[in-house]
Amino acid sequence: MPHGTFNPAPRKSSGDWTSQAGDFANSRYSELSDINEKNVDQLKVAWTFSDGALYGHEGAPLVQGDTMYVVSPFPNRSYALDLTKPGAPIKWMYSPNPSPMAIGKACCDAVLRGWAIGDGKLVYSLLDAHVVAVDLKTGKEVWRTEMADVSKGVTMTSSAFIADGKVFVGNSGGELGVSGWAAALDLATGKELWRAYSVGDDEHTLIGDRYKPFYPHLKGEDLGLKTWPKGMAQHGAGAVWGFFSYDPETNLIFYGTSNPGPRVPVQRPGDNLFSSAVFARDADTGEAVWAYQFTPHDQWDYDGVNEMMLLDLPINGKMRKTIVHFDRNTYAYVLDRETGEVLKADNFAYQNWSTGFDYETGRPIVDPAMEPKPEKTLDRICPPDIGQKDWEPPAYSPQTGLVYLGAFNICMKLTNHKVSYIAGTPYDGMEMERFSVDGPDGDWGQFIAWDPIEGHAAWRIPEKFMVMSGALATAGHLVFYGTSDGWFRAVDARNGKVLWQQKLSSGIIGQPMTYRGPDGVQYIAIASGVGGAAGVQAGRDGYPPRGSTLYVFSLNGKQVEGTHSSAAHPEGEAPQQGAPGSRG
Amino acid sequence: MMRTAGIIAVAIASAAFGAATTGWAVHTGRGTGLSPAVLSNTGYDGPAAVPLGDLAGGAVPRGPIEMKNPLGSGPGVIAEGKKMFNAMNCSGCHGYTGGGGMGPPLNDGYWRYGGAPAQVYKSIFEGRPQGMPAWGVALPPEEIWQLTAFVESLGGSVKPGQAYDSRLGDDHEGSTSKAGSPILEGQ
Questions:
Q1: Deepest in the core among A117, A365, A534, B129, taking most CB within 10 A?
Q2: What pLDDT does residue A566 have?
Q3: Is B6 on the interface with A (CB under 8 A)?
């Protein structure tokens, strides 16, 4: 049986890593193999860097040429680090000074899930709903675009995505009754080119002649309005806080939308389109080409924001251009990325809200006993709001044909309370307790190798703490991931055997990446700084404090040679040995 | 909305200079569309005059900031405050039991802006820089005192009379509790 493939565009040099996923397809696969299954046990720290910001560190550093670019969580300061010098000193720092009000409007910590490089600029979203572009050489601001009013509860936490001269961004605030949207900005000027709302009439959702969804229930006029009770679509969310992907062949971008607002379903009967869904849109105009809703009338805050991996897979003996998507609702979907048809929907972890999948209608079958009613406590719904996998992005290896994903093993006790819309406050209503699927001493996390063609796990690694880091697969037969209690592991991509691991200072919820430095050496980098939704474990023994440190590893800790700028003694004078007061 | 809140904060600060400036504060409030109940908070004669913090953190350490909740802490007041806490979506940020979430916990004895009743009242009334809305624009003083009573009932508040000691860190013991904000712990 042949494996799948993917388009590695726009990657030109295998040594650089210029977008969060490394490519448009969201593969997170690197051709580098200097570090491989035979020598990975010699991996050691080469250097570290702290950005001093103690919110969750969810992004991957980017490397272009001889410089690394890192952006901190709030206050979203960016740094250029010189990879030609020992210890990678700071070339420049840029501080955008976002409004501190944004901290309290962000549902799930003042995080940033990544940044992008293109056309000589570093581009990223600020927590207070602006987008900035910074000159790669000078660190000077090139443009800044205000996207929304943060005081109304709109924040921006997802990674900007660059393709074809445009910057794609989306908003957060699904818990605050915002109107969710994706937008395209001109990379050169920051001017807004189009904005597509997830909920609302066809004019706002950019649904027109080109919109041809696969399923009949997704066809019709103004469905983004008519699948809501009167007056409820306005604050119906469908925020866009996950990753974008782009198919250069069809010029389509793909992204998921968040939960509907409010989170209390009894207040919004109907399918609540196009929340908890995926859009395929024309990258130039934003026109919708198709849409598919993963969780109609989402009653558990499952969202549909998780990444769309663009893989070409043999399904039932025929090569198909697909989207592989691991939804928070615990279905692993394979969709036809040209039509939005569901080719496969299999559970990748434990769930009890759905009794099966109806391929005829393209809808999951809901267990009525798991439908929440106000002030009635449901003792065990699995997964909880954040799913059995949240936004943390998987990696695909064409060597094994497997997709590698960080995942959870958790449930929730849920009591719903009706809520009113008050601008800038949570439009939420879910009172929750989360716990392990396996009881008080059970594991909360797992790392899964998934066969997307067969629709089952090839192997799993149980983890005591949630695995909320991204994954990285390399041609060295390796997969890297981190745990939210701070272990960074390298495993054999074929069988899941742990080949190397290192405990870092804080928990890991970042995205590992790899690059070849200007010295020709392969490095692996990961941020350590727990936070984000991993904070639901804060009451558990062993949950680590926050951190702010980027770790960069190489074989035997090798790094650029040269004079250390901080060498304390003058040339020609040897340091004194065992001098009085020495701690030698 | 936040701009309006800024005007109120300025008005409150100016009231510190005495009754003479109170007139200016009320005058400034005119034309802001604020209710008489809200405006009464900027003077000394309202039903629940806002006690003022010391200027620049260095002036009179005791005084009105040590006052008790004028509505007391009976179960009726707390129940009303709890209703308000949910109705105004406070629970969405601070948690249904005050354990924190998007916003800081209210039950852990740690306070950025003071945990005595009058300080809690001020935080609700004025809002705070990291996203806490200024509820003085929307709610009359009685309801803010009800909210304050509910917050006091959560177990982490500072007793009236200890606002100053609390500021110096002299009123509480250390803790090994892991309860508290799932999101903002350590901030």
A1: A534
A2: 53
A3: no
